[in-house]
Amino acid sequence: MRQVLLPIDASESSQATVALMSDLAKSLPMQVTLVHMLSSVLYDALDSRYQRILHAHSPDEQEGMALLEKTREKFPLETEVSLVLAEGNVFKDLAALLTSESPDLIAIGSGNLDAKVKSVILGSVTRYVLTHVDVPVLVAGKERWRTEMKHILVPIDGSACAMRAVTAADEMAVAFGARVTLLYVIPDPRKEGVIQGHEAMLLSEAKAEPDAREALEEAQKAFTESIHTEARLAKGVVSRTIEKELANGDYDFVVMGTEGMGSALKRLLLGSVTRHVLEHVKVPVLVVR
């Protein structure tokens, strides 16, 4: 049984995450800890550690506890749900609190739509949590959860991190009877802005496709035999290719890693890919480290 931490507030994004996790709890055994962090100017200004609130006295504390109790009612009766109310810095203290609980998974909302630039901006708290915790993070999608999981997309790159994402995707696919599409995008150095000599580029391109096919084959073998998997190979700008695949496919869920294998450039590249996917897709994304 996995331990899931779910930081919440009254926002639409947070409540969408609650709806998602409540539905997942029907198929995946889990113990849920709901966390509500009250922001404090004192904690924001000073290097102070957060404080748990055991008894709600002030109006803000009572409102926070009421939100936690109301949210608990949305989970199945058989799901064990505990409540944590705390006061502190909503960035560093929230990340510290989440880490201190040693969860198997953190679920959090995605962010909001910036009307000025007409693009989806990943929430600042979500972004901070993603870069400061070492456990898998499930980021809810921009649209309301469709209460079913039939098709999962797993972008891979041949790294150990990608294989951990495969393991997580297999567990989800088994629990929900979903089919899985594995996508390996060979980066186009010309479009990714990678600087290479002509000969080095030709050598890299010649080796890329066999390596990609080998990685796809290895990933397919890692899935439970009963799970239907499909392997796809593409070439181009990695982030945009994944975004296009999601837009054109009937996907309900994405599972992907946060860092690639090898050079710092590769790790940076996949990190930017993960950020791009989180900022542009509408379905839930499980980010595995």
Automatic annotation (TrEMBL):
Annotated coiled-coil positions are none
The UspA domain extends over 1-139, 149-289
Q: Which InterPro entries match?
A: Rossmann-like_a/b/a_fold, Universal_stress_UspA, UspA
Entry superkingdom = Bacteria
Q: Which family does it belong to?
A: Belongs to the universal stress protein A family.
- What protein is this chain from? Nucleotide-binding universal stress protein, UspA family
- Tell me which species this is from: Peptococcus niger
